[in-house]
């Protein structure tokens, strides 16, 4: 018992104090891999309930064991008394790694020229040293979908984990082709087009997409017949969607566009996820009936219409969930992906409930991305991508004390924290 | 003081009138001259002012002035008769604040080292010294068209993009041979708008600039007074902008502020409160909540005749659901409210005029009827076209009613004004006769008139198609907004093919030296047409049209 | 007797007419048994608050229920002062008069839009006062206006908090440089130029003041040997700043530019200055504490432009702990709906206490706007701007239930209905849809100057 107390004291002093507040000049703080035994934690498994006073063993980057009183052996012990362990949170839609400074075109890598660029790979442009990455992961958000934007088919999104020196090390093993469904909604106050014009323009764009789609199908059928084809990477990538090797993520927000997108999808045998879905609450039943999963968010945003109830953006997730839609959340952010738990918290407060909100940023996302064998919950055999917090991680007051990604212990620092350390008191105090 | 000025300038114009066309030995080789300028309308019904009806009347006018009216008046031998049986005679309409016939003033070029934060006033749209008179084309066709509808006097606003385009003028829609300017510098025209890209760039700058201008006009006047008494002072440099504002601060002329929203009206009232000038607000399209304030302040109000589009009689397929229905209900109520605005003003006891600015001529009577159907009385509507604007424009002494000594401006109607059957038979303006009576004409077999609406590049255009059939061939005209000026043009219809279910034709539009070929085709279902308009080289646009129940004959 | 009755009827009627025309509506309410977060006097459990005629008249436990006053049973709920946003562009028709590097003469009170449904949404987030500011296009922008969210009125004047002192917007760094230096070839083109423009403005104002003093001092009447100076409300306003009649709220990000303006203000004897956004304020926290009325910051915004790249979410905590009067502002029609949550973030980033965190959105912004004697805390005699939460407002799960301004309830979640628009466009059958990327911001109305370069269509551009 005594040993335990000393250990925990040591842990607190070494792990937290050392990392948070006393970086030695010239010291390089970086993630490292070891076998960690998290002891006496409240383990929030997500899929198998909450386990009190439970140990969790991290070995070879995996969750090797979950149980009470696991043997300490030579593991690095982490006392988690009074703490909770959660699976790493997953943000299902961001630009993280693709943008450094939002207003500087030199640092924007999320958009290519052209409306048909499905083969553009987000993962290629992810900067593993983006300053926003360590800023994000200390909040417990460990995994994000980072995606290109613009055009009809802006490119291919990638699921990344927020640790690694190369894009491949960050690759969490999921890709999706993004499609922007042309909107027949009046966009903003300055859209002076008439209803007919809006409808016609949207139809024209949808017709164009249908043409592209036919072309891709044609490409695929020739290819499958073994015909000679010229290098055509756009069609090659779309044909993978047609073959269901890659899912299609369709960005669509206005209610009538959602319905049109559901119609569009109906005729095609594809693996589809709808994203955005800001007005999903208006057509929740239809969405549920389609059985298509939805990635919605941001939650902390304005209603889409002036006449909407003030809280529709907060309650949208709850409405979809109640209708039976499989749901994941996103921030659609870059530098503030760290707010994902707060978006989930708001959704929880406004009707989604804590459990469903938690699932929407863990296991549901993992299932949608087909990585639920590795991520999304605390289960033996899954990746050791998790974090320790001193309370409910949706609550701002809660501190996330330690993050592990694939078994790597993540240094709990970043530029924000270092600036805090330097400037909290500008005058250096002599060491006591 | 102002009224005196106005009267003296008017009497000057009338002096010229008494000695028409000095001939210097030439004969009237084309027979243009009138035999006399004296006419009388016999045995007619007079509506001398709103609410009064006098039957079996005679009205005598001479050289543009009403000399007498009544049952038994002396008719001089030289008076020519206008048969007034079965006609109703109304005072000529007065339009406040329109821009038809106005041309853009020339603005100085921006210098090479142009500083947008301190532009020349003219470049910033601040040229209150520009006079509408200098930019008015008296013989423009638009005003002649408006005269056909009964308008005889109008206030002309200068064109210009910025906040102070100039001062307004009063004109008569009179005979082309006359000088039809009634008065200039009649009011200072102000609007909440900017040239863009220079100071002032928004309403924020406009409000601030206005305050500075008025304050400096006062100082400028003080300086002028000081200098005139004391020549040892630094001279006052002439500043035409400030010169033009001095009559405003001395309340010799009103400021005519154009509004496009309730908040504009509130801003106008605030401006007046700050600087205490005489205020006319024109273009009023909303703001029933402001009625008590407007009444209390006795603000001159001019309502726009340009009503919102009716999107409800023929609703498009929209979203469904309770939210949608509820929202549409509110939108519709807002629409109905704008139709009833004039009626609300009347009920509140605020005398108001009308402006035709932005109004398509085809909507004039239609919109007044809509207002009447939504609460405005017919007397109120007539007042808004006659006595009220005369009062607002301070010309009640010469216009607004039919009475002795006033200008001979009147509208002769075939039926009660605003009734469905009523036609303008004749307009008398400045004592000149403009005969619009219809020559007897039968509706030809199959002849039809359609009202269409097309959308081109985000702009809506409206007009009419008139078809007639002769020897089994269709012909007719299409009317449309002139792409170059504000008026309406017509072109002949060519290659028309009309069946029960379809309609197609072509016409050409002249734009400068070029001619655009336009092809219209589409389907007819009952009284409705829906189709496509192809402008060669430009694209395809949607067209909708409605068949009018009874073709108009002109 | 009869006369008396008639007189009283007349006087009542008169009162109603007058109050409709002029008076701001003020309410009475008795809020019973709440956890009262006073801000200035800690948390009072099971406490009643009586509001009479728009003013908090009594705070205590077991107060007697007054007659004829609506009673709210707030058992288990948290009552806090209405949230105050020291930097907002809500309810404005226009934000920037971007045509000149100095536009001190323009007044936001001229362009208040009472029909902005965002006001209702802000109320639903507990925000009762906002500082409606000019944008950040100019080194010296326009005069701001402090609004009380009395939603429902059509009269812009009814939204104005009449007691609030005058304030003005200044802006340093990228925005004025971009608009004028790059957009129009006018100074400032650099941070050097920003300082020069402000100094030039102040010097011109001093000269202007002297000219007017000469004119006013010279003999009246015919003997006057001077000609009247030109009136210039721009310089007039700058004179008022120099005379301490106007509080400067300065859009700023980098430490160097903040430091620059502190020095300039010191030189001209100006101490009424608040720095806004002030992302690098943490680097000059001691100077901000000593020479200014404080800093109004974002909880966590950063990296949307280069001058906020070296930011930290711990800014508010560092500033607070260095004794700077600190507030958290929205600068957004979205954030203004959950400033309580933004304040809560300072507990994650820097561990502020509940009182410290809530002061950031109540009494501190009130101080920065010069209205802390009237609002910003629950104290007897203060204006009854209140918000009732179902849970502690710093919890992520807290939902504002009711919001009062001057004792009048403007929001009640129970009775909330959709479509709170006051004004409806009679032609709008197809409702426009606003997606995430289209929020209001500091740089609205300057597009004119940016056709063709460097405008980012996606992110924030504050």
UniProtKB/TrEMBL annotation, chain B:
Q: Which Pfam families does the annotation name?
A: Amidohydro_1
Signal peptide per UniProt: none
Q: Which Gene3D superfamilies match?
A: Metal-dependent hydrolases
Q: Where is the Amidohydrolase-related domain?
A: 346-431
The protein's matches in InterPro entries, at most eight in alphabetical order, are given as: Amidohydro-rel, Metal-dep_hydrolase_composite, Metal_Hydrolase, Metallo-dep_Hydrolase
Judging by the UniProt lineage, the source's domain of life is: Bacteria
Q: From the Swiss-Prot or TrEMBL record, give the protein name.
A: Amidohydrolase family protein
UniProtKB/TrEMBL annotation, chain C:
Pfam families for this protein: Amidohydro_1
Q: Which source organism does the UniProt entry give?
A: Cyclobacterium plantarum
Protein name (record): Amidohydrolase family protein
Residues annotated as domain Amidohydrolase-related: 78-397
